[in-house]
Structure formats: C-alpha cells, structure tokens
Amino acid sequence: MVRGNDNIPPYSLRLMRNDTELELAGGIPIGTTSAVRRILDSSPKVRVIHLNSTGGRIAEATKLADLISQRQLITYTRTTCSSACALAFLAGRERYISEQGRIGFHSASIHGATGSDALDVNASFKGALVRAGATPQFVAKATSVSPQSLWFPTALELKEQNIITSVVDSRYFGLSGISDWRDANIIEQALLKTPVYMALSLYDSGNYLTLRKTVVEGVQAGRSAAEIQTDLQKLLTESFVPGYLNRGPDQALIRYWRSQIAEIKYFGRTNPSQCVTFLGLDAKASTLDLMKGMPSELANEDLAALADLIKQSGTNPVKALPFSEYDKEFKGVLVTMMSKDRGSVEIIANPEKFANDPARTCQSMIALYDAILSLSDQKKAAGMLRSMSQESKR
C-alpha cells in the first residue's frame, strides 16, 4: 500500500430499475464509498444496493457499511459477496441473497499477513457478526479461515445466524451480477441458447428483432428478470403466437395445441383458478409464475412445439379458410360436448359469466379442444383450429 501497488480490482456502479436499485460490482478499493454516496445523493429513490463483489479494503468496507446503515438500505447479493464485501452486506436493514447467492468469509489480512484484533482488521467483522446475532462459534469460524481461502456457509446457516433475512426469488430484483451487461452481442448469445428464440431468429426475423430489443434494453437498464419475462410473454402470447396459429401447417399446429391442452388439463387437476388464468380469461391475474410448478416434461414439450410451429409457419405457411367451411364439423364437436355436459356449450360461448366456477370453465374448454383434436380427419381439425384463431382476431 505504501508503494501504491494495489491488486484490488476497481469497482463498478450502475443504477437499475428506474433508479430504485444500485449495483456495486468488482472490488472495494479506497474511494468506493465516496462514489456510492454521490450516486445516492443524486438518486434518492434508491432503496436496495446489490453487492456482487470480491471485497477489498477493510477500512473502505467499514465506511461503506456505515453509509448503508445511515441510508437504511436493503442489501442483496445475486452472485457472491465475499471478504470485505460481507462487512458492507451485514449493514443492510434487510439482507437478502438470491437462490444462487453466496456470502464468503475469511480472516482479514494486510498483504497476506493474518490480522489481529490489535490491528483492528478482524474486530470490524466480529462486531458486525455479533450485532447481527451470530453465535460465538460462527463468529470464530468466519474470522479464522485462512486469508487465502473462503468459507461459504449454506443458506440455512446464514438464516439461522441472522446473517440474511431470507433467500428470495431473484426474478423480482434487478438483474445484476452480469459482467457483460453493456454488450448487446453477449446478451444475444445467451438469448439464442433458448430454442424458441433461436427459431424466431431464423424464421421470423422481424419479430425476433423486436424481442431482442426488449431483452437487451431490459438487461442494460437493470430491470428485473420478472419484468423482462412479463414483456416477453406478452409479446409472444399477444403479438407473435396468434400469427403462427393462423398460418401453422397441420402437423405442427396440432402438436402445439396438444401441448397446450396437456397443460390446461394439468391446471384443471391441480388448481382450476390457475387453469382460467392460463386460458387468458382472468385479466387481473399474472401468468408469470404458472410455469414454475409445471412438470418439466409438459413445459419442455410446450417450448419444443412452439419452436417447431415457428419454423413450420415460416417455411410452409397455410392460409386459414373462413370458419363457415367447417360448419358441419363444428356442429359435430358441439354435439359431442353436449353428450357429456349440456352446459359446456354455454360456458365456452360466454366464459366470463362463469368466472366464479373455474373448474367447470376449465373442463368445458378442455372438452372443446379434445373434441376438435379427436376428429378422425386431422386435416379438418387443423383447419378448424386455424379458422378459430383467425376469427378470434376480428
């Protein structure tokens, strides 16, 4: 330090989520706290500070901890907060980690020499841990690990020792901990690992560019994954997919509808209210969390069927015929439905009237699509589905 040689990486700061969250990444060299204070002074809406840092100077981390405490900030780690960073993390009025978040501890040191309470390099850690409510055994272990190593307690241990308030769903915090967030090409590379988005890029470039712009701008603005996912879901379900349903060729179209009906049946068995939400009949409910509990085989087939539908719609589109072309077949579908439940036809005609009975609404929709998909002439079934989608747009 006397010679001015410092191997601590520089810090990186950025505001996220409309200036309500702030990320500190990299190291915590001297001057970090002053930079954080300037941003907080100019951005009074900040309530959460993301600490995704490898640590740095104990004295600087102590200053940063004091600032975090004074401003009553919530601390959050999406990736790793280790060494001196943990000292700043402990100052949060509420302290959260993501599902993959880690807090790393070791003994403080000066140029590799293990610190002592006399030198006051470990005393700050011990005091912060004690104030948080950690046991003497935890404090002793956290401050005795070699400076060349790191100890990462489990999330359960961190919770039991009051180091963290809880583990949270990272989708609802700003998307931090991404070192290449400025590089649109790097973001796109991650995007294209998803087969649906790859299919869009290859067979529907116009819609893909719209989606790419949404993702890149969302990541660069530090929006939450939930916010970005909600926008993507809206683009797909309201803007993109209806077009594929209008022009998808028979086999791909029927495969996609079968994947949807399988999911509707799953919700009908497990939670009829979620079934109604999935069908788009409950505008007030969010569909974001619906897929979290979905069996992986159903979710994977949904995505695979959609990717195939995008490809086939782009390479072999089929024009939808007027729905009147399928009058005879549709009357047969209604007769089949009424033979099982006479009231089902009324429900599918006016589903909003039966919002207080999600189970029957769900079963009626299942009956409708089951009857269509069970037609002996699959070409007629696909044609009817195309025409129904075309009519729904008008």
Q: Tally of extended strands?
A: 10
Q: How many separate domains?
A: 2
Strand order of the largest sheet: 1-2-3-4-6-10
Order of helices and strands: EEHEHEEHEEEEHHHEHHHHHHHHHHH
Write structural notes for this entry.
- There is one protein chain.
- With about 400 residues, this protein is α/β, with parallel strands linked by helices.
- It has two domains: about 10-170, 2-enoyl-CoA Hydratase, Chain A, domain 1 (Alpha-Beta Complex); about 185-390, no CATH class.
- It has 17 helices and ten strands.
- The strands form three sheets. It has a six-stranded mixed beta sheet with strand order 1-2-3-4-6-10.
- The longest helix is centred in the middle third of the chain and has 23 residues, at about 225-245.
- The N and C termini lie far apart (about 70 Å).
- Mean pLDDT is about 90; it is low at about 1-5 and about 110-120.
List keywords for this structure.
53% helix, 2-enoyl-CoA Hydratase, Chain A, domain 1, 2 domains, two-stranded parallel ribbon, 394 residues, 17 helices, alpha/beta, single chain
